[in-house]
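Appendix C reproduces, verbatim, an entry submitted by the partner laboratory led by Prof. M.T., so that reviewers can inspect both the input and the predicted structure.
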Amino acid sequence: MTPEIKFVSMPTEIARAYQAGAPDANGQVPERHISDGDGVPCRHCQQDVAAGEAYLILNHRPFPTPQPYAETGPIFLHADACPRCPETADLPPVFAVRKLFLLKGYNAQDRIVYGTGQLVPPAEINDAAAGILARDDVAYVHARSAYNNCFQCRIERA
């Protein structure tokens, strides 16, 4: 039986810390830029940053502690406070305008579960994530950019 799922965006306390200038996973202050409106997906609200709006580029580690499987990578975030995308089974808005995502399962020790990686178009993400989460050895799934491996959000059992 496949489980119900929910999409989980970056926690608000982490987003607000970066927006206030806290150092990123590299120990650097996030860079501030102005969006041209072309493909700058915020990891907190799961919307593209509109043309003319400020955004941050920073290195993010979506894991609780550093370890060999705790990947880091560049992400975008609105420079100013934005509402967090609700935790629901509904595909976040920013996913619909992308072509492909990388899904990977992780175990309870935050290690990649080999054999779970899949390249998936948006229309198939819910079913693919539920299939990965049906495995007993998978605690959660990461959705990442298929082209740049940038973290987009976490997917959990509902």
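The mean pLDDT is 96. Additional entries are available on request from the coordinating office.
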